[in-house]
Amino acid sequence: MRARLILYAYMVQSRAFIKTKKEAPKDEVSVNAQLLLRGGYIDKLTSGAYSFLPLGFIVLKKIEAIIREEMNAIGGQELLMPALHPKELWEETGRWESMDDLYKVKDRQGREFALGATHEEVITDIVRKRTISYKDLPLHLYQMQTKFRDELRSKSGLLRGREFTMKDLYSFHASEEDRKKYYEVAKKAYVRVFARCGLSTIITEASGGSFSKDVSHEFQAPTESGEDLVIFCGKCDWARNVEIADKKAGEPCPSCGNILSEVKSIEVGNIFTLGTRFSSLMNALFTDKDGSVKPIIMGCYGMGLGRILGTVVEVNHDDRGIVWPRELAPFDVHIVPLVSKDVKMTKRVFAEAAKMYRVLRGTMTVLYDDRETASAGEKFADADLIGAFQRIVISEKTLKERKVELKKRSEQKAKMVTAKQAITALAAQYRKRKS
Ligand code: ATP
Ligand code: MG
Question: What domains can you pick out in the chain, each with its CATH number?
Fold first, then answer.
């Protein structure tokens, strides 16, 4: 399955807003921010707030499309809630006071608001205003929306924004049994989303943090740059975040006895049992089969889009730039013609490249490096930094052999093939993936 994206299907590089940089700003310490800034994917406005430039926006929209497909597949209905929340709503659950990272703002008349850090209060308010019977349940509502959190440490680029996009799904059930069943369904959908983004995850079990004492699960993507440390068993699925675990690496697994290992990782998703915590406090009720009126049983399920994007870069890069997985690459193919000393030859090379561009853009997304002022070195450096899934180089040398060079970003060596072979091979790949 391939998430469809019409946006920016093809681009001519001389006109594209891709201003690559040789060096990352000194104050950026994380690899994801360094490479995304250098590659022209993002711009930093201030600590924890980034713009997605055209290239970054393409990748963000691809992640969004994958999440939307997987959430709709598990019965999710998409909606959109405001970021501006009245103080009174947050006071109902006590979180106006208890949530440290809540941004609070005042209007001209002195009324206070929170900038939404999460949306349990708002979604519960929407549901309680409506008459809900057991026949309306289960109900699964989600959004992809901007969250604001007054994060103390935001030095890790897209991994920890003060303003960031989250997919948050809230589920409503008539019974605990039904909620539990859906929780497992959501868990599988989460694993699918991350797998399609090229991330394998360890699922750690934890207590519910600020939400409840009930169980929650984190989806942890192992990588050296992760802020979290996960203790896990390589043999069974026992895994815990070290923050809460009473086990250490080297000790036997409490479930199967195998020796436990540890790995640094990034939390890309988190799902929670809410039970009736919010519905009781806020009076969100439903009428059950026997006519009795009860608080609705809830769960919530979050993942950060920017954090996923940043994690993908942390996991998939080399010293030259980003190595996007196929489904997230901003372009399927980057066509790179090289200037030669002979003007006539340069004309032929670029004519050949332009022809290829016109043919390929019908079936796949293409970036065409039409710049005649850039050297081969500059073009290769840009191509590796940007990280389109594969690259076609056309030069005097390849033309003399009536061939082109075809190479995936993840591969070291290029193949010499005829233009026709390249077109056929690529068209087959993308036709296959679309079906
Ligand atoms: P952390 O422990 O990393 O601060 P959290 O546990 O507070 O995160 P949740 O409330 O569980 O975060 O949010 C759900 C998901 O939203 C997280 O799993 C993560 O993918 C994403 N997320 C949370 N905070 C941020 C942030 N500051 N920037 C980007 N994404 C975030
Ligand atoms: Mg979390």
Answer: 31-318 (3.30.930.10), 331-434 (3.40.50.800)
